[in-house]
Specification:
The complex is a heterodimer of chains A (144) and B (153). With 144 residues, chain A is an all-alpha fold. In chain A, 71% of the residues lie in helices and 1% in strands. Chain A has two domains: 78 residues, no CATH class; 63 residues, no CATH class. Chain A starts with a helix and ends with a helix. In chain B, helix 5 packs across helix 6. The chains are: A mainly alpha (144), B mainly alpha (153).
């Protein structure tokens, strides 16, 4: 039930997110690295992207806290994990190194792919390979 | 620290803020309508795992979300030229960086969208630790590449 509607609302969310990433400058690696390069001439723009996202996000998520079901009547499926462990920290560090090298995080990578930019294609293929590598490593760890 | 006023113009500041609002709105919308976290790496990673396990029933909304993201630049181009996207590294850097981002975000269970926007908006300490770790690592990486090794775009 409601499956078509779920796809529609999810598709709209992806579209809005993608347009936001383009407008904000997140899909421009030079802009991202300009923010990360605190020792060079610094571009604070991305702080405003984060700030804008958090203002809307914190108000929105606070309002959602009181709800048990979604707009479409399904149970809310939000993460509850509070675990802070080595996987979280080391994984984030690996992500940060990759983000620093490319200036591209996963969302903008998909936007660049959608725009048909060759670098976006190489990045997303490698991103998927990295995710597959995770699955392989974890499968081996459970077996051995 | 010096501000790069050539990059940080009033126009850049306004579009950054407006874009941020849209990103936040998209995250709240997906949580409200679908009850899901708009985390790109999580959605992509789970999609791969569901494909391997052949659990087709949970495919739909994830694929729709990703298609929306891929379609955004095409919709944009109907009305205006895409803003410049200046790459910072060559093929080897893109492959290495992409692999690290894929591997790392699966271990950390989230990236800039899931931990950065959704997690911090929900005041999650776990997400705060993740964001602190990846921001620090990214800043150090850029410092090493640009200022110690002298690699520039």
């Amino acid at each position: 039930m409601n499956r078509g509607l779920q796809w529609l609302t999810a598709g709209l969310a992806g579209l809005l997110l993608g347009l936001g990433l383009i407008l904000s400058g997140m899909a421009n690696p030079a802009k991202v690295v300009g923010f990360l390069d605190v020792a060079g001439p610094w571009d604070p723009s991305l702080g405003l992207v984060m700030g804008g996202g958090l203002v809307v996000g914190s108000v929105g998520f606070a309002l959602l806290k009181k709800r048990q079901v979604t707009l479409l009547g399904e149970p809310l499926n939000l993460p509850v994990s509070r675990k802070i462990d080595i996987r979280l920290i080391l994984g984030s560090v690996l992500f940060g190194i990759g983000w620093g090298i490319t200036g591209i995080c996963p969302g903008p990578g998909l936007v660049l792919l959608g725009a048909g930019i060759p670098e976006g294609v190489i990045y997303v293929v490698s991103l998927l390979a990295g995710m597959a590598l995770y699955s392989v490593i974890e499968k081996c760890r459970h077996r051995c | 620290m010096t501000i790069d006023w050539q990059a940080f113009t009033l126009y850049a500041a306004i579009t950054a803020l407006l874009g941020g609002f849209m990103i936040g709105l998209a995250a709240v919308w997906l949580a409200w309508a679908n009850g899901r976290i708009a985390g790109i790496s999580g959605i992509l990673g789970h999609l791969i795992e569901l494909m391997v396990q052949q659990k087709r029933e949970a495919f739909g909304w994830r694929i729709a979300f990703l298609l929306g993201l891929l379609a955004a630049p095409l919709l944009w181009m109907l009305f205006s030229a895409l803003p410049a996207s200046v790459q910072q590294t060559g093929s080897i850097g893109l492959v290495l960086g992409g692999l690290l981002v894929g591997l790392g975000t699966r271990y950390a269970n989230g990236c800039t969208s899931g931990h950065g926007i959704c997690g911090l908006s929900r005041f999650s300490l776990r997400s705060l630790m993740a964001v602190g770790s990846f921001m620090t690592a990214a800043i150090v990486t850029v410092y090493v590449l640009r200022h110690l090794l002298g690699v520039s775009a």
